Amino acid sequence: MKNLSSSLLFFVAMLFSVCSHADIETKEFRIILAPAVAKSTAGYGVIKNVGAEADTLIDISSDAAMVMLHKTEINSGMAKMIHMPNITIEAGSELVLEPMSYHLMLSNLSEDIFKHGKYIRIIFKFEKAGIIKIDIPVKAAWD
Amino acid sequence: MLNKILTILLITLLSNVNIAKSKVVNLPILSGVGGEFTAVDSNGNTIEFNSYAGNVVVLAFGYTSCADICPFTLGYLKQLYNKLSSEEQQKVRMLFVTVDPEYDTPEHLKAFLGHFNEDFIGISGSKEQTDYIVSLYQAEYNQLSALGIPTENIRRVQPKLFEDESEAEEDTATLFSHSVSIYLVDKDGFTRSVEYTGTPKDEFSAKIKQLINE
User: Fold this and answer.
1) Domains of chain B listed by start with CATH number
2) Which chain A residues contact residue B68 at CB under 8 A?
3) ipTM score of the complex?
């Protein structure tokens, strides 16, 4: 019974980790396990527009933290974070969120939730594809 | 015949290993980068930079409310540090200088850096001290006030976290832009190389080892 529950949980987690919604697919999303005293962390992954038309990500939210799409830009050795209120993903293109580039900026973290192995529900809202909910695992990143 | 070929191959391989081991990189003193400063370490002690003399120092700037590049840099430094033997680690000091000393108190820095490695040392101080250290290393930082996250927006998302209104009013997440260089300083306090997280860790650790053995 315990094995069955674990398998079911794993199956559900896999469903959410590779999420497909109409013309938008997400994959490889993870949220970085931050130091216990940190008040922010980052999330990375890939959002792919597999449709025939461009679509725009217009909002990101979560009950577990405040979430924004940020981009780290490095110019002349200076790193600067830029808030991206929305971003258009062309048909057949993908938006790659990775360190020192686009990333989910999560702040005001709920302490009990951001633990290794937990899943954080993030809600993406697209102009055409609508609302996409994915449960993203919290992972220790830099080992 | 086969034995002969294998012997030649083995000798060639061993020769290459010896060449790689003995490869010395030119690390000239970078005049005008770095120098003596006073600050506070993550144990709350006032320190002079020359108190680290005799150790190789790896120094980076950042702040703990930074979600992307600072944790990434500290993760890189953790992996770099792990490439050193415990004996070599004792001769190296990894310094993380905060550009947000108002929020990053010594205690907070200690707890934050401990997530990466207990040996890492947080450096903070007054704004004047911070500005001076930044200028010594020809680095830069700026407060991005426009991108600060106002409490009212946080409360809109998660009102339950703010039972005390006065606490809520004070809580803001300030963002900064800052230099991303990583400075390698020799045992005499001279900056010898400026690296970044793109430097292959084997290359960087070889430079550290070279300075340890000077």
Assistant:
1) 27-140+179-212 (3.40.30.10)
2) 42, 70, 72, 81, 99-100, 103, 105
3) 0.81
